[in-house]
Amino acid sequence: MIEYSADISTSGFVPSSEYFVSGQFSDFLELPSRGYCRLYKAQRNGQWFTLKTLKPEVSDDPVYQGMLEKEFNLMMQLNHPNIVRVYSREEIPSVGLGIVMEYVDGRTLEEFLTENPTQSARESVARQLLEAIGYCHGKQIIHRDLKPSNVLVTYNGNRVKLIDFGLSDSDSYAVLKEPAYTKAYAAPEQLSCGEIDNRTDLYAFGLILKQLIPNRYGRVVRKCLQPRREKRYASAEEVAAAMASCRKWRRVIPWGMAAMAVIAVLSVFSLLHFSKGETTEPMQPSVESPSSVRDTVFLAEPTRTQAAESAHNRTSSHAYEDNSSGTYLKDKPLTTVSSSEDPQAVVARRQRTDSILNTIKQKENQEQESLDNAIYNFKFTIDSMFKLVDLYVKSDEVKTSNILRDLIYIAEYKAKIRECQIRRQLPKSKRNSFFNYATDQIGAKKKSYTQKYPDIPYYPNEQQVREPEIYQPILEQSKKYQEEGRRLYKEWKRQMSSIQ
């Protein structure tokens, strides 16, 4: 018989062979990182921390030192459960001057989505992230670099932790105000180096929400992604209220559809009952009654505009012939409604027709709105793509048509690649319109430089340049730009083939 030396119901630690706590950082483990900083996991006083320091190649650069100090000062103002905590900024042996932060045992939002999380988990992550953004904005801090890789989700409880405030900015700061962003999640005003505010972060949140919960918050995402800031939500609170409204309607719609189905069944039943109740009389030759109410009909091939005008301008009872898919049939005979027909059937046909027309109209409006947004967005894009050309012609460097030509070539295919990316997201009915617009804009932009700077000399060979030390750098730079142009041309061809 086995005898226990202690009561098995008593709580306690399992004895370990080692127990050592140090007041200095130890057990350094370098974590994956991008940009100008290095990240380490280290322990002190029995706790894990994350250490953020500058990489050796920029550790002596005052600009990067200022960025790290600015990040620390901004994050010290933040105390929120969904934002990573900062404890101190100190000189760490073997690492250097760095920021001591909370260690988060989790994965990025990108990795979280690969796990195919439940709908409720996705909703919870979106809500927590929006709360963190709203809290930052309440402190007059703009993150400026919201993207899935800067959002951590803990393994324990799927808690959100917003990280990496290295590019953030605040109203209280007067330095390091230069434009900063990740291009894939940048708002139009960031790409054009314009003024930014809270709505810039909400643009990035719209892109994250679209990726996190696809096909659910379409109306909210569209408003977050409006190219003009004044058309977006003004605050994170407004976004949260709009998302709550969407969730409410998603709960109400199934009940509404069920009620409509019940009403439809009752209508059919009443029609059948009414027809059976009529007295049966011997068949007589068909004579049209003067009091009969004639329906307006669609002719052989009505356009959508004609259908809409007919529906809204009618002055008598209207009944339209339609098939099960909601499209109008061709070459249908006249539909005559007798004055003795059940009024409920007439009303039902009216409502069905109005519903079809409204659906068509809403779809057309949405497609046109998406085209307008794409055009507005492309205006910012094309200016930013040709920014290097503008800088070159305004600089004091030696100007040659060689370099100008190569820079225009690079800018042209950057703009064309962006045009392909935008066009792929548009409805098919609007893609040709956007392609024609973008092509015209790119052509006009190229033409403007040839007209504005016709006198810039062209150096085809070294014999035409008196100073070889001037020609050689021009030649090397031109070769470099030509290689970049060829790469962009191949990328554009690949994008074009993927659309077609």
Structure description:
The protein folds into four domains: 26-102, Phosphorylase Kinase, domain 1; 108-250, Transferase(Phosphotransferase), domain 1, CATH 1.10.510; 296-364, no CATH class; 386-499, no CATH class. The chain is built from 13 helices and twelve strands. It has helices at residues 62-75, 109-114, 119-138, 188-191, 198-212, 218-224, 236-277, 304-313, 343-385, 387-394, 401-425, 428-452, 468-499; strands at 26-31, 37-44, 47-54, 86-92, 96-102, 106-108, 141-142, 151-154, 160-162, 169-170, 293-294, 336-337. The protein is flat, with a radius of gyration of 33 Å.
Question: What labels describe this entry?
Answer:
12 strands; alpha+beta; three-stranded antiparallel sheet; Phosphorylase Kinase, domain 1; five-stranded antiparallel sheet; Transferase(Phosphotransferase), domain 1; 4 domains
